[in-house]
Amino acid sequence: MNSEPEPIPAAPAPEPVASSTSPVPVPVPVPGTPHRRRPRYSGKNPRRFEEKYKERDPSRYGDVVAKVLASGKTPAGTHRPILVAEILEVLAPKPGECAVDCTLGYGGHAQELLARLVPGGRLIGLDADPVELPKTEARLRGAGYGPDVFTAVRSNFAGLPKVLAGLGVKGADLVLADLGVSSMQLDDPVRGFTAKFSGPLDMRMNPGRGQSASAFLAAVKPAELVRLLAEYSDEPRADVLGESLAGRKVATTQELVEEIREVVGDMARDERETTVRRVFQALRIAVNDEFSALDTLLRQLPACLNPGGRVAVLTFHSGEDRRVKRAFSAGLEAGIYSSIAEEVLRPGPEERRANPRSSSAKLRWAVV
Ligand SMILES: C[S@@+](CC[C@H](N)C(=O)[O-])C[C@H]1O[C@@H](n2cnc3c(N)ncnc32)[C@H](O)[C@@H]1O
Predict the structure, then answer these.
(1) N or C end of the chain, less CB within 10 A?
(2) Binding pocket residue ranges, ligand 1, CB within 6 Å
């Protein structure tokens, strides 16, 4: 991972990892992963993240990984790229072009793009996450993409113009942003993103920067939390939740779940769990300042694209989609974009069934 491209001999063009009809990546193992003692678990199937060592070692346990994928689940420690065929169609990557993946994640979309950019092209992959980025970089290197074609940069995508300038790149031909968090982040209890497992209430994409969700909750004023819950996750009970939760000292994800359940105790179970999900979403957006980063990216995008450049943004909730729609429409009206998506593209029933995490995805695109 660096911020300076290094010249090395050109790599051969590797095969794409997912077909257009089956957006499921074949995980490439991280080279040099040290051998660890197997964790023991009771029962037939592992439940906890750390017990799922077979899913996290696809080179040795390909059959286990295939079974998990067939059941519509995401193998632990991986991420399944969404709307791959549609993204490839709107971004139309060609050999020799320069692409930016603003949200590299597991590298599923990046690997598909890279396969179409060689020979002669390159992909710059950004991610704010210092935990997953080195693993993804190692995987893509292992798949045959050297620093001449692939550059991994740990950066918030709000800093895209600076990253491009630092690499001596004038503009990109295509830009992808697949917003939110990856399955690796969601499924690892240590990252504290999910209500499903107990872990420290952290939620930072970069755990080395800023405040954890626990510190944020302890410091936030009630009126501010009410506003964030209403604005960031359309929470109908923002008032009562914000007033009750602000200033609380909550160390773990499970403690927060309990606190939320206590506040909305009279609700039906399904509705209560939806409330839990919405509170987690609003906190995550606040802790990572996600909307400011997205607004900054959308404002800077046209200047980062070459003439004829294409951009695709994948969103997962209304707050994100509203921003992308507004920015693209304003750009079209101002003559900055020559065309934009008139309708959002969404995963079809087959993809939603195969990967339920794709269900809320919406894709918008624009061309300068
Ligand atoms: C949904 S995942 C991307 C998955 C990826 N497309 C793939 O195929 O594996 C989103 C990723 O974007 C990163 N991310 C989210 N917001 C970011 C930001 N403002 N700047 C940089 N990275 C960000 C997260 O850390 C996460 O790794």
Answers:
(1) N
(2) 79, 81, 103, 105-109, 126-129, 132, 156-157, 178, 180-182, 205, 293
Residues 178 and 88 in one domain: yes
Protein residue closest via CA to atom 18 of ligand 1: 156
Residue pLDDT tens, the chain, 368 long: 544 332 223 333 333 333 333 333 444 445 554 555 666 656 666 666 666 666 666 667 777 666 676 676 677 778 899 999 999 999 999 999 999 999 999 999 999 999 999 999 999 999 999 999 999 999 999 999 999 999 999 999 999 999 999 999 999 999 999 999 999 999 999 999 999 999 999 999 999 999 999 999 999 999 999 999 999 999 999 999 999 999 999 999 999 999 999 999 878 989 999 999 999 999 999 999 999 999 999 999 999 999 999 999 999 999 999 999 999 999 999 999 999 999 999 999 999 999 999 999 999 999 99
Rg (Cα) of the chain, in Å, rounded? 21
251 and 319 both lie in a single domain:
no
In this structure, which residue's CA is closest to atom 8 in ligand 1?
108
Residue 23, domain member (yes or no): no
End-to-end CA separation in angstroms for the chain: 30
Q: Residue 72 belongs to what domain range?
A: 33-76
Atom of ligand 1 nearest to the CA of 106: 9
Specify the number of domains making up the chain.
3
Residues 150, 153, 157, 159: is their CA dihedral positive or negative? negative
Asked whether residue 333 is domain-assigned, the answer is yes
175 lies in the same domain as 322: yes
Atom of ligand 1 nearest to the CA of 129: 25
Ligand 1 atom closest to the Cα of residue 103 is 12
Do 155 and 284 touch, CB atoms closer than 8 A?
no
This prediction has a pTM of 0.85
The answer on 179 and 90 residing in a single domain is: yes
Residue 321 DSSP label: H
Query: What is the CA(200)–ligand 1 centre distance, in A?
Result: 21
Name the pairing type of β-strands 122-127 and 150-154: parallel
